[in-house]
Structure formats: structure tokens, C-alpha cells
Specification:
heterodimer; A: alpha/beta; 2 domains; eight-stranded mixed β-sheet; five-stranded mixed β-sheet; 36% helix; globular; B: alpha/beta; Rossmann fold; Pyruvate-ferredoxin Oxidoreductase, domain 3; seven-stranded mixed β-sheet
Chain lengths: 373, 443
């Protein structure tokens, strides 16, 4: 059953089907469509939609609601992520399940509001103080906007962490033929909640990579939530042992589960010495380029990375085995290329193909600049 | 009402950590008194704080606690109250927090969200070294105004009161009725705020020889009244929102998906790119979508990318459409094969694409527009020959697409009609215009 819709609409639909029941955001091109769709529909399913006075307030609303038991999403573009920064840190520290959509537009600063880019890829990972990990997913099609939104909710609930969906102006606003099959929607896992009867310990974990159980405000246990470095009971502490445990936990609960989070698609061409590795909108150009090359009798492996952060290192290394040349097209000046460079072996050449003029990378550019033919 | 409790203070964390003589002791004791008087279930009370000495407060209460970022406390409180309107959500914030988060405070007041704000107003930053805050009185000496404060202090209750807060009051820690005033604020539906002036014995008292008497003089000098200053009964936001906006529909009923199952056939052998260049208000984007949906009804794949200025009701409106029998990965249109130039605004934007057209390509030009130099075959459409419908600019794109479909036969016109019928509200007029496109003469 084909439909015709754009990425923003598919994300809104994905949020509704994921059971999102709280959304707050501030209008910004090219992400506004998500706010508009949800403002029109979510309250009719019992959900709440708030337009904050700014991005900071919107994130504050989301965090308050998430810790009160809601399944929460917000969406913005690069300038909004800049304003989200401090609360991204708070959400990492307080282990808040939260989905944040970044419909990327050209930066820096106000940049070009109606012009696509993939310039936030490192910013999303390193966008707040401390350097602790988050999860970033990147859809390449409108359908994947739907499915990865649902996946983002699932991972947010599973890991209690901000999960970003990095799309871009082109994916967000270009309508395409889509095949969304709602009846086959995977369910979002429920968050792990503390038993009503037993004592609640906010950071009650045995192993560092474990995700602690939650309890909502107004729930059966008194919840102590804090932006400050805290001990297992949620009290501010400077005790080195407690600080070390907290911080290593915040890293381990994501990084030790990189393989579980890893999502990439490897379309291997046996004996191919060339791989085109990409993500998001540029992965569509990569797919077209590889198709074209193969039709001309050339071999090329296509790797599409959906889980950008944590970098699925083992899976990428495995996919690159035997490859001599890795071509990485992206709409920035090499942000993900640097991740691939550190994964490549000494005898593997990494060729970045970059555009920052607001135009998409064409399949022909990948073929020519990457020497695919 | 719940069982009466002796205290809401947390035995694990007491005593308070504040400096001797600091007003924070009094505020927390009076807040505890207010909670005791209200006999609330501690599991239905959330104390939200942010940064500064006042931000240390939440841990001393045996209730829910949220300790957040500087000045943002009222935003978290709003999220909590929206999610759980039955909870009592209390915000403890300093004058520093009010300064950095003043925007949120004004909007919370305007929104009238039912949170209760208590401002620990000690007229300076007590935690970081006695710097001036938004409430530091004129001429007061702080570590960052050694010359005496030149900036007018913010009138906190006035600022929220004038912007719609249900309840706004000002008092001092020396007020014997402080606990009652706090009780009154918590009981009041909607946004409530009490600005509580107090002594910072670490800095402000020392630097300004400040005292209870000097505080009173300062209030008078500033003409800052004390007591309840605003008392209204506007509807509380989280409940008002639920009444107005929220219903409990099933998600699949609320948001349906329009299925475009192929029921026609297309003869298009390979990908084709079209650009419809028009003007704002001429339904260019809609026509592009209907045309694409017709293609999908015919088993094709379609993409549509629109371009228009940020001021949407003026200037050009351009729809780039790609149709293909196969999946379309790359959605850019560098070299279209068909250009529809229907309005001057659009024509001006696609000059480059028209110049790049090849002899086997097609330019469909509104006959009212000037001649355009191109290698492509040109159809000049005289919309005036279609009389009534031809004069209406909002049907021009549909009519041009109708002319093109009939001649090119890339998919059946009936599929286009089926797409038009998807929107019952506009279907009748759009179908009539499509029919009238048969009368458009081609030069």
C-alpha cells in the first residue's frame, strides 16, 4: 500500500505509533512540520503538545514530562540543538528517556534555513559538557523516518538516554512514495520501572553498564532527580568513588552495548575493492552511484550506517574487510569521514566527498571523485 | 485531605547547610510548616529547584525532588504539571535563577500553569561570591558593582502579575505570617509566586550593612508594596488544555494513511523529471502532489521537492517532480526533461534549467509569458481559450498537467482524476478544471 508523504510527516506518524504522549517544541524551519502534525493529531490520542517560549523551555517541559512517566519527543534544527545543549547534558545526567529530532539545515548559526546539510553529526555527539555518549540514528528514506522514530523511542526507553534522529531538510520536506505498514510496527519496549513494594534506589545497579529502573514523579516511590553529580541515592556527592561509578556508568550503559545498538546495512559485492559508506540523505546518492557502477560492470560495496553514534566500530571494520578504497560522501566537510579514517587500516584509502553549497551530492560526483568506475 | 504529618523535612539530610543568619533557613522552615498545614501526601508533592544556595533546598524535603539547571526550574515544573496535573509542584528559585530564567517565568505566568514559585530573594548571588543580581537595589555594593548598582531592580511580583499570574505576593522572611502566605499560594489554582526578601549574611549584609530595618527602608524607597498584589481566578493551564484539546482517540483512527494502491498502468519506460514553475497562491505544490499521486496510482514511484521563498504568500513556487518505474534514490533534479513555466515568478527562477533543455525535452509555456529561447520543443498554452477555468490562476497547474498527460500518455488521465478525488473538498472544482483543460489551445 504505497503512500506519498514527506519525512516530517512520517516522523510525526512514527511518534504517534510509538506511543509518544508528550511533545514540546519551538517552530523552526525545516522541522516545524513535525510540530504542526503532532499539534493537530497527538492530543486526539490523549497526548499533549506544547509550544514552548523557546527551545530551552521546550526541552525543560519534555524532561519534566518524561520523568513523570510520559513518552516524550521534541524536534528542532541546528540552531535549536544549540539551545538544547545544556538540557541534553541534564538528560544524560538524569538518565531521561527522550527522543530529539534534528532536521539539519545549513549552519553555522542561522545559516540557510531552507537549505539541507549534514553538519550536525559531530555536534550531536559532542554537543554538551562532559563528553558522555548519546545515541544518534539517521534515516535515509521517508519510510525509515517512520521506522527509526519508533526505534529511537525504543532505544530511549531501553537506555534512558537522549536518542537523536538526525534527518535533514531534503528528507524532511521531500515527498516520496513510501510503504509504511503500521500493522507490522515493532513495539517499543516499556521502560524498566521500579517494583512498588521494594525500596527504590535511583542509581540502583549491580553492573556499570546496567540501566537503572525508573519511577515517575507522583508514583509509588519518592523520586530524587538531579543535575548534579550524585551517589546511588540521588544525593549530590564529591566522593571520588561515587563520582567514578556514576560517570563510568553513563558511558558504559551506551558504549558497552554498541553492538546491540548497531544498525547498518551492508550490500556487499564479492571481491569488490571499493566501498561507498554513507548515511542519511547522502546514502541515497551512494545507493544510486553503486547501482550505476554495477550496471556498468564494476564492483562496489555499499554500506549504509543508520546508528551513527555510538559508532558501530566492529560492524564497520567487518564490512570493510578486503576493501582498498572507502568513499564517504556527506554534506559537510568530513565529519563522519574522520570516524571512518580512524577505523580504516593502513592500507585502506579513505576518500571523502563533501558538499556544503546546499546541493545534494550527485551519484555522478561519487562515481567520478571516488573513482568508482 | 491526607493524614497530618509532623514534618516534611528529610531526616537523612538535615541540618540545613546555609550560613548563620541566612534567610533560607526561615523560608524552608515556613515551607515545611505550610506543607504540614496542607497535609499533602508527600508522594504528591514535587519540589523543583535549580542553582545557587536556594538550589540546595530540595534535598531537605522528604517529597519528590527535581534539581535542575539554572533558571530552568519552572520549565521542568511545567512539564511535570502538564503530565500530572494532580501533583503539587513547588518551584524554589533564587533571584539569580529568576534573572537567568525570567523569560520562562513570564511565560509560565502568562500561561497560568499551576506551579507555585517561591523566590529566595537575597538581592545578590550568595553562592558564587556576592555578585549583583536582577534584584540588587540601586546604589547597593556588590562584588561586581563596587561603585554601587546603577541598574534598576526587577519588580518580581509585578512582572508576573501584570502578565497574568493568578497569584503574586511579596514579603520578607521577617513576616510572621509567611507560612500562611505560602499555604495560600500553594492552594491557589494556577500560577502563584511569592517573592520573599531575605538577608544574605555572607555578602549582601556585610557589603551594605544590610539589616531587617534597611530592607524595610529599601522596599519603601523602591515603592515595592508587600502582601498579596495579584489575586485572580483565570483557568489553570494543564486542566484548561485537557478540556480544550485532549480527547482519547485510537491512534490509527486519528491519523489515517491514504493508500495509493496501483489500479492503473503506466507506459513510462524510465525516470522522468519535471519542474512546475509557478507563483505563490497558484496551488503549484498541490498540483505537483496530485500529479505524483496519480503516478503512484499508475504503479510509478514519485518524489516531489518544493521551493518557495520564506515569505510564503509572495514570489515563486516551484515543484520538482520525479516519476520513475523504479525506486528513486537521488531526489535532486539537475536537468529536467519537462519544464512547466506558468507564471512570471516561476519563469524567472528556472531560466538556467530551460537553457539546459535538450531538443528531445519539452517546455510548456503559458502563452501570456514572453518567448523563451530554448532548444526544447515548446508548447505555448493559451489558457484564455479555456474561458472561465483558464482565467483562474489556482487551476493553471492542474490544467497544464492535464494537457501534458493527455498528450504524453505517461499515465492515464483517470489516475490523475482518482488522485484529485482524494480531497473531496476540492475535487469538484479541480475535476472541472481538468476537464476544461481539453479546451486549452496549444500554439
Amino acid at each position: 500500500m504505497p503512500q506519498f508523504m514527506d519525512g516530517n510527516r512520517a516522523i510525526a506518524l512514527g511518534a504517534i505509533d510509538a506511543g509518544c504522549d508528550f511533545y514540546a517544541g519551538y517552530p523552526i524551519t525545516p522541522a516545524t512540520g513535525i510540530l504542526l502534525h503532532l499539534a493537530g493529531h497527538l492530543p486526539k490520542t490523549g497526548g499533549l503538545v506544547l509550544q514552548g517560549e523557546d527551545e530551552i523551555a521546550s526541552m525543560g517541559f519534555c524532561i519534566g514530562a518524561a520523568m513523570s512517566g510520559r513518552r516524550v519527543m521534541t524536534a528542532t534544527s541546528g540552531p535549536g540543538i544549540s539551545l538544547y545543549s545544556e538540557n541534553i547534558g541534564l538528560a544524560i545526567m538524569g538518565e531521561v528517556p527522550l527522543v530529539i529530532v534534528d532536521v539539519q539545515r545549513m549552519g553555522p548559526a542561522t545559516g540557510a534555513a531552507t537549505t539541507g546539510a549534514q553538519g550536525d553529526i559531530q555536534f550531536l555527539r559532542w554537543g554538551t559538557s562532559g563528553g558522555y555518549p548519546v545515541i544518534v540514528l539517521a534515516p535515509t528514506t521517508v519510510e525509515e523516518c517512520y521506522t527509526l522514530t519508533i526505534k529511537a523511542f525504543d532505544l530511549a526507553e531501553r537506555f534512558r538516554v537522549p536518542v537523536f534522529l538526525a534527518t535533514d531538510k531534503e528528507t524532511a520536506l521531500t515527498k516520496t512514495t513510501t510503504h509504511i505498514e503500521r500493522e507490522h510496527t515493532p513495539r517499543v519496549r516499556d521502560r524498566k520501572t521500579a517494583e512498588t513494594e521494594s525500596e527504590f534506589v535511583p542509581l540502583g545497579i549491580e553492573e556499570l553498564d546496567e540501566v537503572p529502573a525508573m519511577t515517575p514523579f507522583g508514583g509509588p516511590h519518592k523520586l530524587r532527580f538531579t543535575t548534579s553529580s550524585h551517589d546511588e541515592h540521588g544525593y549530590l556527592t564529591k566522593d571520588p568513588q561515587a563520582l567514578d561509578r556514576l560517570n563510568r556508568h553513563l558511558a558504559a550503559k551506551i558504549e558497552a552495548h554498541t553492538d546491540e545498538i548497531a544498525m547498518l546495512d551492508v550490500d556487499a559485492d564479492q571481491g569488490s575493492e571499493t566501498a561507498v559508506l554513507s548515511y542519511g540523505i547522502s546514502a541515497r546518492s551512494a545507493k544510486a552511484a553503486v547501482g550505476k557502477a554495477r550496471r556498468s560492470g564494476k564492483k562496489a560495496t555499499l554500506i549504509t550506517v543508520y546508528s551513527l553514534w555510538p559508532v558501530p566500530e566492529d560492524a564497520i571494520r567487518e564490512a570493510l574487510k578486503g576493501v582498498k578504497r572507502i568513499i564517504v560522501p556527506e554534506l559537510n566537510l568530513g565529519q563522519y569521514t574522520r570516524e571512518i579514517q580512524r577505523l580504516a587500516t593502513n592500507d585502506q584509502e579513505v576518500i571523502g566527498i563533501y558538499r556544503v553549497d546546499g546541493k545534494l551530492i550527485t551519484p555522478e560526483e561519487i562515481i567520478e571523485q571516488g573513482g568508482v568506475l | 485531605m491526607n493524614t497530618k504529618r509532623e514534618t516534611y523535612l528529610n531526616p537523612d539530610t538535615l541540618p540545613f547547610p546555609f550560613c548563620p543568619g541566612c534567610g533560607h533557613h526561615t523560608i524552608l522552615e515556613k515551607l515545611n510548616q505550610a506543607l504540614v498545614d496542607l497535609a499533602l501526601d508527600p508522594k504528591e508533592v514535587v519540589i523543583v529547584s535549580d542553582i545557587g544556595c536556594a538550589g540546595l533546598s530540595d534535598r531537605y524535603f522528604d517529597t519528590h525532588a527535581f534539581h535542575g539547571l539554572h533558571g530552568r526550574s519552572v520549565t521542568y515544573a511545567t512539564g511535570i504539571k502538564m503530565a500530572r496535573p494532580e501533583l503539587t509542584v513547588i518551584v524554589l528559585i533564587g533571584d539569580g535563577g529568576f534573572g537567568i530564567g525570567g523569560h520562562h517565568m513570564l511565560n509560565a505566568a502568562r500561561r497560568n500553569i499551576g506551579v507555585n514559585v517561591f523566590v529566595f530573594n537575597n538581592l545578590n548571588y550568595g553562592m558564587t561570591g556576592g555578585e549583583h543580581s536582577v534584584t540588587t537595589p540601586l546604589e547597593a555594593r556588590t562584588s561586581t558593582t563596587p561603585y554601587g548598582q546603577l541598574e534598576q531592580p526587577l519588580d518580581i511580583p509585578a512582572s508576573v502579575g501584570v502578565n497574568g499570574a493568578n497569584f503574586a505576593a511579596r514579603t520578607t522572611t521577617f513576616d510572621p505570617d509567611l507560612a500562611d502566605l505560602m499555604t495560600q499560594a500553594i492552594q491557589h489554582e494556577g500560577f502563584s509566586l511569592v517573592d520573599i526578601w531575605e538577608l544574605c549574611t555572607a555578602y549582601f549584609v556585610i557589603q551594605n550593612r544590610f539589616s531587617k530595618a534597611r530592607m524595610q527602608e529599601t522596599l519603601e524607597k523602591l515603592d515595592f508594596e508587600t502582601g498579596v498584589l495579584h489575586d485572580r481566578q483565570r483557568p489553570e493551564f494543564s486542566r484548561a488544555y485537557r478540556e480544550k484539546a485532549v480527547s482519547e482517540g485510537k491512534r490509527e483512527n486519528v491519523v489515517g494513511l491514504t493508500s495509493l494502491d496501483p489500479s492503473f498502468e503506466s507506459s513510462l519506460p524510465r525516470q522522468k523529471s519535471l519542474i512546475i514553475a509557478g507563483a505563490a497562491g497558484a496551488k503549484i505544490s498541490t498540483a505537483g502532489t496530485l500529479f505524483s499521486q496519480g503516478a503512484i496510482f499508475s504503479g510509478l514511484q514519485a518524489t516531489q521537492r518544493n521551493d518557495y521563498p520564506v515569505t510564503v504568500k509572495t514570489g515563486h513556487s516551484i515543484a520538482e517532480v520525479i516519476l520513475s518505474p523504479e525506486e528513486i534514490y537521488y531526489t535532486g533534479v539537475e536537468t529536467p526533461e519537462v519544464v512547466f513555466a506558468l507564471f512570471p515568478e516561476g519563469l524567472a527562477k528556472v531560466q538556467k534549467q530551460i537553457k539546459a533543455l535538450n531538443p528531445e525535452d519539452l517546455l510548456i509555456l503559458n502563452a501570456d509569458l514572453p518567448e523563451v529561447e530554448t532548444a526544447a520543443q515548446t508548447w505555448r498554452l493559451d489558457f484564455r481559450s479555456a474561458k472561465r477555468w483558464g482565467r483562474k490562476k489556482e487551476y493553471r497547474a492542474i490544467m497544464a498537467l492535464g494537457v501534458y498527460l493527455r498528450a504524453s500518455k505517461i499515465y492515464p488521465i483517470e489516475a490523475f482524476q482518482a488522485a484529485i478525488e482524494l480531497s473531496p473538498r476540492y475535487a469538484e472544482d479541480n475535476l472541472a478544471a481538468l476537464e476544461a483543460s481539453k479546451d486549452v489551445e496549444m500554439g
